[in-house]
Predict the 3D structure of the following.
Amino acid sequence: MLIHLVNPNTTRSMTEKAALAARAVAAPGTEIRADESRDGPASIEGPYDGALAVPGLLARIEAAIAAGAEAHVIACFDDTGLDAARALSPHPVIGIGEAACHTASLVADRFTVVTTLSRSVPTLRANIARYGLAGRCAAVRAAEVPVLALEEPGSDACRRISAEIARALAEDGSEAIVLGCAGMTDLARALSREHGVPVIDGVTAAVVMAEGLVRQGLATSKRGGWASPAPKAWIGRRLDQARVEA
Ligand code: 5HY
């Protein structure tokens, strides 16, 4: 089985970190092919970055379909471009945010999401409501850590995230924590040991869900909003189509 893991931001080190986590949980017969957008922001922090990241993401989805991918994992906790990618691809598309929150709901009655910056919170809250999990998510908290601080060796990002988890467990009535950024994927096990609760990483959750859908022979229904894109007149440059590599 070939699963495409795509980072919608343009930071290669974050892609590689997510790919490592994906390969650690993938079944023996699963190949993970990881890439990142080639046109867009270095990190996604809020709706403006999220909107600008979508065309570059779709170009990578298109290229992966041509390369034989059987499912896609969008490795950004905002589930950037998830609906558009589900319309574009005939294969299952899983966002790490949706996967992580559903996984948390299977191991805890209430969970708290700990993400990076406050500007990311409204998008995550809206997604969680759309996924039907608002009643299970006690809070979405920001550790006030910029996304790219997670890529800086020696930053205090992990300490700040751990402190926010401690506050969540003390104040939210939560029984599990969801890490609200793909860049946190390498912190889940240590934070779970430190705090004694399940700490869910979306990359891991999404990969096993993608494998499960492929094994069941399931893919996105094309009857409604995720119907394949209709041909359309266009004016201006397109960044959503994979460039033919020179
Ligand atoms: C992510 N941004 O997972 C999100 C997290 C956030 O570039 N990768 C990003 O802060 O919204």
